[in-house]
Amino acid sequence: MTSTQSDADKVLRLPALEIRQGKQRIYTFGIDGKELPRIATISRVHRDDEGAIGGYQRPEVLAHVGEIRRYLESENPLLPNSLVIAFDRRVKFEPQVDAELSSLSNYSKAGTLIIPVDDSAPDESKPGWIVDGQQRTAAIREARIRSFHVSVVCFIAKDVEEQRAQFILVNETKPLPRPLIDELLPSTNGTLPKRLALRVLPTQLIERLNNDEDSPLRGLIRTQTMPNGVIATNSMIQALKSSITDGGLYQHRDPETGYGDIDRLLKLVKPFWAAVEVVFPESWGQPARKSRLMHGSGVRSLSYLMDEIIMTRNRRSPPTAHIYTEALEFVRPACRWSKGTWKFHNGEVRKWNDIQNLGRDRELLRRCLCDEYRRQTR
């Protein structure tokens, strides 16, 4: 059987197999890879004019695409792995009319996948999004061959959030860039592995901290869509995760689900970093090679100090930027973020740029800041 298209209703009708997986349905079919751009597009991660995350694919890896293209142009190419496409609800599955022929087993049936086609529509209006197989699709598109048929597995998603969740789960075992996963997590719904679920709340906070107009950290956290940020995403995630699980932010999250009140959490975090900017202006916004304030060790040790300030105050009212500023002034004389030498309480002396993003160095900074704060506030 071959695919057919009706000019009248502008649909592509593809022989397909429906397979039941629990309450879900997946479909498998074959198609000429040259036809894929007509029904599916690659959605790269970007932010719209209002700062909202859009898309979920990584930029094409040109070298990899070139290797696949050259292979496809060789004598006997073979791409046995199926591409994965998420279709929207415009795509329908129509079982074969003959029930006996249609039902292949108690979990599968044969039929036709009906996909709308509009060659004049922009990419973002295509019914399908390529979840897995970006490089293969690009290579087939560019290869100097007339056609190349591929196997596709697809599912019909209710919304783009479900597509993102499936993209993360499909690619989670591959070398998918951690910053990409972290930027997608805040707008992803669905069941995730526990180690990813624990990062959802911190990444939701980071998205707001990096985009809210009133955030002192706006644009400073390095992500896929904000590559010029000076704070590594993972350093901020670890700082927030630690505070959420057993620090100053703990009381504002649900221990059962791991989620929390974003706005209440931001009322604790934003004023703190606003105060950091006020107290250490010469070290603020500098890359790690010029300032350890924005370095992983600085971000995480300062977050521990934030926890200390929150937990030693009356919890009925969150600390204001003014209160945080007063607390940071207590420790400012001991800090050497961008010049000079740290003199730690254990007698160790370290030049400012000798501090590395290592557990021992972070512990030295944490103890220095928190012990100095406690000593000054007794």
Walk me through this protein's architecture.
The protein is built from 13 helices and 15 strands. By secondary structure, it is of the alpha+beta class. The mean pLDDT is 84. Strands 1, 2, 3, 4, 7, 8, 9, 10 and 11 form a 9-stranded mixed sheet that branches. It folds into 2 domains: 168 residues, no CATH class; 179 residues, no CATH class.
Q: Can you summarize the main beta sheet?
A: 9 strands, mixed
Give the total of domains: 2
Low-confidence stretches: none
Annotation field: number of helices: 13
Short summary:
The chain is of the alpha+beta class. It contains 13 helices and 15 strands. Helix 8 (200-211) crosses helix 10 (262-279), helix 9 (233-246) packs parallel to helix 11 (296-311) and helix 12 crosses helix 13 (359-376).
What's the topology here?
Blueprint: E1 4-6, E2 11-21, E3 24-32, H1 36-39, E4 40-41, E5 46-47, E6 53-54, H2 62-72, E7 83-87, E8 92-95, H3 99-102, E9 108-116, E10 128-132, H4 134-142, E11 149-156, H5 160-171, H6 178-184, H7 194-197, H8 200-211, E12 221-222, E13 231-232, H9 233-246, H10 262-279, H11 296-311, H12 321-331, E14 341-343, E15 349-351, H13 359-376
Parallel strand pairs: 4-10, 7-11, 12-13
Antiparallel strand pairs: 1-2, 2-3, 2-9, 3-11, 5-6, 7-10, 8-9, 14-15
Helix pairs in contact: 2-4, 8-9, 8-10, 9-11, 10-12, 11-13, 12-13
